[in-house]
């Protein structure tokens, strides 16, 4: 690899915002379909689910995620690759706290169709009052035709 890229990895990556949600305990737990992204030429992706959750003491936020692919970005999509199994990613501290973080899923796109989108579920354990802001971002790996690599 060209040493210049070792100091500028951003030149090799493409990022795409796919979704932004605000959920409370009254509307959490449903799978969210993000926007399709054209992955032409990219052979890998990292799905990043960023969150900020206001959690009461000992209550949790759980995240699950996967990618779907589609030939034209207009269909229902088909699950593709490995999934991020449902896992607790944050727990409210003493007296209730605001927790921030990310859940990530790395995916090999070698066999994927042209368009991909994230699907993810944010689930709050509390019966009331907890909230979460979530954002799905796809980071696409180097294109097959990397100049000067």
- Say what the CATH topology is: Jelly Rolls
Number of domains: 1
The total of beta strands comes to: 9
Structural class: mainly beta
CATH level-1 class: Mainly Beta
Strand content: over 45%
The appropriate CATH architecture is: Sandwich
* CATH homology-level superfamily: Galactose-binding domain-like
Q: Rg, please?
A: 17 Å
**N to C succession of SSEs:** HEEEEEEEEE
The whole-number mean of residue pLDDT values reads 91
Low-confidence parts lasting 5 or more residues at pLDDT below 50? Answer: none
The N- and C-terminal alpha carbons lie at a distance of 5 Å
Largest sheet: 5 strands, antiparallel
Helix segment count?
1
Query: Percent helix among the residues?
Result: under 10%
The backbone outline, from C-alpha atoms, is globular
Describe this structure in words.
- By secondary structure, the chain is an all-beta fold.
- It has one helix at 3-6, and strands at residues 14-24, 32-33, 37-38, 44-55, 60-70, 78-91, 97-108, 115-124, 131-140.
- The protein has one domain: Jelly Rolls, CATH 2.60.120.260.
- Strands 2, 3, 5, 6 and 8 form a five-stranded antiparallel β-sheet that branches. A four-stranded antiparallel β-sheet has the order 1-9-4-7, with no helix packed on it.
- The longest helix is centred in the N-terminal third of the chain and has 4 residues, at 3-6.
- The model has no long low-confidence stretch (mean pLDDT 91).
Keywords summarizing the entry:
149 residues; mainly beta; Jelly Rolls; five-stranded antiparallel β-sheet; four-stranded antiparallel β-sheet; 9 strands; 3% helix
